[in-house]
């Protein structure tokens, strides 16, 4: 585990993007292609904005989407497909982009997406940490054992409140009850994981993650068992812990 503390969300985004681009370029140099997982939400704005500007041959990159709500259209403000297409995939020329789609008969879509994901390992995954310490939409208590690549999960109240505070929904009652999420087990199969976690609202989750043993009630603690996990913080998100700059 490596923990880095930057002065601002902008510096955090630059550092997380630099590390990500470096890993992508190393995978391309080694195998001719890189497979990545991207997460979404307000915490990822700076990282994705910077990443798409860096020197990467995106035509040799395959991207997989981390999670999506069940039952909302791509046109919805909160759609993570919409988020990624507007903020990232429309601005770079990827070899392939695989999205989670929770509309209609989503079980068949999950199966096809899982088949694509299982074809080769993920080189690098950008995995945020939620205010309740969730990773993807694996809210506490998270299932650490389910080995399916994508699973349907029930969103807890804390997670729903976060979505409202970030401006994706007007009220908690408007947040869908369920989401499709990459499983914890699948996330942990990634060769490298980078977690870009800015802002004061994440300080408690970071403190809990770093100061507690592995615990499904604090899902992000599982990341500490990964062989190549880098946690990038800013001054506000690191406020509750001791981090050498």
TrEMBL record:
Q: Which InterPro entries match?
A: Glc/Gal-6P_isomerase, Glucosamine6P_isomerase, NagB/RpiA_transferase-like
**Keyword Magnesium assigned:** no
| Keyword check for Cell cycle | no
Pfam families named in the record: Glucosamine_iso
Report keywords, A-Z: Carbohydrate metabolism
UniProt domain Glucosamine/galactosamine-6-phosphate isomerase: residue ranges = 8-228
- Gene3D superfamilies listed in its UniProt record: 3.40.50.1360
Question: What is this protein's name?
Answer: Glucosamine-6-phosphate deaminase
Report the source organism. Answer: Paenibacillus solisilvae
List the top taxonomic levels of the source: Bacteria, Bacillati, Bacillota, Bacilli, Bacillales
